Structure prediction request, 383 residues.
Amino acid sequence: MSTEKHSKETVLAHGLGHMDEQHLGVIPGIFPSTTYERSADNSYPNGKIYTRDHNPNYEQPEQVLAALEKGEEAMLFSSGMSASISVFMSLKPGDHAIIPKVIYWSFRNWLLTFAKDWGIETTFVENGNIDAVKAAVRPGKTKLLWLETPANPTWEIEDISAWANIAKEADAVLAVDNTIATPLLCNPLELGADIVMHSATKYLNGHSDVLAGALVCKTKNAQWDKIRSIRASGGAVLGPFEAWLLMRGMRTLSVRVNQASSNALSFARAFEQHPLVEEVLYPGLESFKGHELAKKQMQGGFGGMLSIRIKGGEQAAIDVAANLQLIKRATSLGGVESLVEHRASVEGEGTPCPDDLLRISIGIESADDLIADFSQALTHINK
Ligand SMILES: *Cc1c(COP(=O)(O)O)cnc(C)c1O
Prediction:
C-alpha cells in the first residue's frame, strides 16, 4: 500500500496495511519491551537495540505520516515542542533563523529565551510579508527559515513556495509547522519545504488524549541524521501505548478534518456579519486577507481553526466565552470537541494577539449546535 497507488484517505484508514503478523490480527499490537535480544553472532537481527531509538509502535505512524506528507522519512517525538526544538538544536551557535512574528506562542517564547541563550540568532518578520523575509537573510549565516501557516491564532497565510525560493538561494533549510492545515489540506514538502513539523497532539491524534509531535523530511541528509541522534540521546520519544493510540486516532483523520473544515466554514459565515462581531478570522472566508493564497496552497478545505474578534474589547470577549454552554473553555485544538480560548489571557505580556480575540477550535459536532451556542453567548455581552 502507498500514496502513489491509493488516496490518502485509504492509506489512513488502513494504517498503510500494517497488521499483527503473528496472530493475523488486523490491528498491530502494543510492544512495551524497552530492549531487544542480540543474536549469538553478536548482531541485532532486526536492527532494534533499545527503545530510546527503536520501537515497532513508532514505525507505523511514522511511515503513514511520511507517506501523507510525501517525504522520505518521519520521526515521532514526545511533543510538538520537542520536535520543533530538535530542529533548532541541529543548528550551531551563531547560526541565524528567520521566523514570522505570529506563530504558536510557546515556541516563539522558547526562541526568545532558550534559543537566544544558546547563541541562535533570530529575526522575526511581519506575517505575510515576503519582502521582509528576503531582507532578513544574512548571507552565509542564515541557516533556517521556519514558518507556520495558517498561523496561530490569527491564521495569516505564508507563501510556502516563495519562502522556499528564498531558502534555496540562501542555502538554508525551510521548515514548516503544518499542524493547523494537516497533511490532508497542505503538503509543504511538495511546495519546496525541506522539513515538516506537526504537533500530533492536535488533529493527527484528534481526541485530546495524547501528547505527541513529528517531523518529516523531504530527503534524509546529514542534518536529519543529527536530529535523529538528538532524539535518541535526549529520549524525547513516545511511550509505545501513546504511539499506538496516536495511530488509532490517525485512522479517522480524513473524516474528522473534513467535518471540522466544513463546520468551521459554516460557523465563520454565520458570524461574519453579526452586529456584535468586529471580525471573523478564517482563511476560508472571501473577506480574509490571505484567502486567495490559502485557496492556492490548500486543497479540500481551510481547516477547523478560526478566531472571532468581539466588539466591546477584552471584557466582552471574556463574557462571551463565559456564557458558552457547549463549546468548552480550554486551550489546545484539533480534537473532536470544540474548544474556545481567550488567547491574550494565555499568551500574556508581549503577545501580538488582539485582546478582543476568541480562538475557536471547531470540532465535529453539528454546525447548527455550535452556531446556536455562540449566538446565545453573544447575547450576554454587558449583562
Ligand atoms: C500545539 C502546537 C504546537 C506545540 O505542540 P505540543 O504537542 O503541544 O508540544 C506547535 N505548533 C502549533 C501550531 C500548535 O498548535
Q: What stands out?
A: Residues 6 and 178 are 22 Å apart (CA to CA).
